[in-house]
Amino acid sequence: ARSLGTLRDTMVFAVGNPEASVVFVGEAPGYEEELRREPLVGKAGEKFNAILVAMGLSREQVYISNICKFRPALKNQTTTNRKPTREEMQACLPFVRAEIGIIKPKCIVALGATAAEGLLDSTETVGHLRGSWHEFEGIPLRVTYHPSYLLHTDAALPEKRKVWDDMLCLMEFLGMPISEKQRGFFLPKR
Fold this sequence. Notes:
The protein is of the alpha/beta class and 190 residues long. Helices cover 42% and strands 18% of the residues. It is globular and about 55 Å long.
């Protein structure tokens, strides 16, 4: 991956439970992730943590990785980030395959279009891919919006509900208890 010459030097590997039932795969490290050497931190990480808490989980119970293990480089780069290229994702995919092979999760969640593209070799939108199960290396995979998307969208409540519907489906798949309160999150008030 580093021999491509388009990625920065610091590897941001993964965090979480190596015996997790679910692996969440994001895009690539950004400025904050590179600084802290941990995936899904900063504001998007806070949103992700809140989603986990609402599910009755914590970061320590799941496994969190990225489809690209290094922050994609830009000329005169400071805090600006860019999406990894297909070539950069393909160069890092052996790491992701090895992680998933070791963990043997019951399912995988692709957070956002870039993770879905890297895992499914698809250029379909998240809106098209979400709502059904896919497969990666024989393991069920669900696609949902990246937490950062929820921070930037104008239609916040409907988009949050879509992500929550995906998480409810994940919880049902894993046999987790779901309360009526959880089922009602982000639904319009009657």
